Records
---
Amino acid sequence: MKEENKKAIAEYIRSGEKDRSSLKVGLEIEHFLVHSDTFRSVNYYEKDGVLSVLESLTEKGYEPVKEDGRIIGLNHPLYTVTLEPAAQFEVSIVARQDIVALDHAYRTFQADVLPVFDRLNISMLCLGYHPVSKIDDIPVIPKGRYNFMKEYFSTTGTMGRNMMKGSAAVQTAIDYVSEADFKRKFRLAGILSPYLYFMYDNAPIFEGALYEENMLRCKIWNNTDDDRAGLIDGSLDGDFGYEDYAEYILNQPCIVCLDNGGYTFSRDKKVKDIYADKLLSEQEIEYLLTMFFFDARAKRFIEIRQPDSVPYPLNISLAALVKGLFYSEDNVTALLAEAQNITTDDVVRQKEMLIGASYKEILAQGVFEACAHLIQLAQNALSREEGAYLDGLAGLMAERETLAMKGRKAIRKYGIQQALQPYCAKPGEER
């Protein structure tokens, strides 16, 4: 049955192929919900907490999503709202061809949720790691698989709980027109991993103390689970396609399996063994692919997952950057040609180097210039209106600073709450 299941997973990924004229970009933005007066985490269960927020939004017409009778998400025509393990508040915007449409959807989301937060004295914080509450003080939401994941990751690395309960990201998704196109884009997404982590580095604090290195979320993923994070070994060899991805998935532990509408803790039993006598259904494949957390992962699209959560409009800039780079054949061809000899090990070493690099070393390596080059390539491939979303990111690179670097300076000068006010979500203005 393994070969049949490999083909089933590969065909599921293949079913995401689109016509070149209909390529879209998706965007997911995670936020911390914090008490406005202390910046401590707002949890799901407390009075006027996350559950109260979800209930208030259902009164505005949002469709509730429930598990075991409790609301754990919301549906809206333009986006969905879901909760990450520690109630990080995620909005997943329906994929669009136009970056301006993504921006409009996010501002619609803000216009709906921010008045509810204001009434409850809650702020929606865009940061890569929680600034005040420690992971031991944050409960996991009532979603079946999360407690199993927490237990499993305690055996695979040192920072799985930090990933689940302390971190927040911005992610984007892109389409492909064929398997050949998938191979090129998937390889490029891996090659660009160090730069995407670096450009959107926005984690100046770790467990209540200043974090003095770079790319904290990258470090966390490096210490979570080698089987399902970072880069798949061999995925940058230029010929890594649908069946290669499926083969890798089948040979890894499942952790949690769908079972008659619920979840079963399968621990380290491999996917191929769990489904040795059963053909995977589409629902099972869809769920299974979400249980892997690579820098870039495949579903019916390629999901690019490196950036930290960043404030508006920098969060929208990720969609513009990726559209400009990955939907330009000239850019994809040129970037792959520049990196034709780069291996998975090379990218892993570059990420590790950047995590521990001093500011002088970063300058000497020309990292800011490399990032600025990528931004310029993307802007050249976009309309003037869409390219304008990259101006703020380009400005950061021109200043030779990341948001994490700026954040550390501000925290030292003003303290956490005053320094991080600019990272609190505010109503987005019409562009």
---
Amino acid sequence: MSKAHQHPLEKILESRIAIIDGATGTTIRTYGMAEPDIRGERFGNSTKDLLNNGDLFSITQPDMIGDIHRRFLEAGADIIETNTFGATSITQSEFFVDDPREHGGRKDPEFYQKIIEDQYLNDLSWEINERSARLGREWADRVSNETLRQRFVAGAIGPLTVSLSNSPDADDPGFRVVTFDQVKAAYMHQIRALIAGGSDLLLVETIFDSLNAKAALVAIREVFDQDHTELPVMISAAVGRGGETLISAQTPEAFWNAVAHVKPLSVGLNCSLGPDLMYPFLEELSDKANVAISCYPNAGLPNPLAETGFDLGPPDMARYLGDFAKGGLINIAGGCCGNTPDHIAAIAKVLEGQPPREFSRQVSRDVRSRA
């Protein structure tokens, strides 16, 4: 990438550690929302519970989602994620389509082809993604203007509720519930809506199935080529206790080798085990990758007795992320599940003035800034 066409976020990554926001879902829970709040009038007649469909709050409770963005930005986030982790037609079908397994059938490619072609689900997916991106854009611009410090909106692309790598049928290991092309089509629809809403970059995150991620990355490339646009891409995987992606079982080095051709702005780890167990896997990825490294772990392991549902408080997360910075491992830092605006504020404070990890990035394709 020539300096003349360098994206503003990349310039920041060369000079300091950038801060990404925390967990939208965790923070939503602090607002005490109940089933009627997510339904509103529009979804009042839905036959399934919707409260776990947090992306829907961008439609029914936009003021709350905007307030969450504001709080993370005021806590010090340079990058906020759109509220779109499950905003594909495939994932939304879990909340709006009867499960054929309840009637003696099964989910299979024929079932998901109907999902991909369902006009209601496609329209809903588009609306969630575009509205979420516009909410993020509004608050990023507002806080940028107030603080004279540029902020960025990352279009969040989650891992789906289906797997391209594994069969759910132990007696038929070759069976897949969905095809690569179906997953790619769902992602392309989401990506176009995220771009239409004003996202600065795209974030393929919490990757537990590398083949699902590959479909998302192919979808991104095809949208860029077909629509004559280009945004920076961030890629982030979730790992297990051995450092492997959870379904496809790739080591950090293998994961990097699988996505390096995309020439992303950053690659990293998120969610997973919490920061205390992540260090060696982050160290391996940092050693192998020639792009910026991101890290936004869970606040430890789940704990239903903890206030946020996770063990670690703001001082704990600040200490661990500070250690990552002292080890020269990170360029982007924040928090995943269990991390509230207070966690992000503590992380931002401890990382202020810490030098970023050094990296040398060779990119053959100019990335046009939308900032």
---
Amino acid sequence: MKLTRIFAVAIATLGLAGFSGVASADAAAGKAKFEAACAECHEVADFEGTSAADITATLKKIVAGQQKHKTALKLTDAEIADLAACLSAGK
């Protein structure tokens, strides 16, 4: 029983840590990055209704070369979080 409680607390802590990373994302920085790296081919409206988590997952796959994209992207985790915050907010 005690091990189960420790496991549950550890999972909750990791979940909150992951969530706090998204919460600290900078949508304004994401918009600037979008204009510099994405706006030539995409519009913010292209991502309407897509969650930040889904955008993050897609961008990470593109950066890792696991998902096809017109151009190779080199983005840091912070830039990905910023872009996801911007695009999921529709800004």
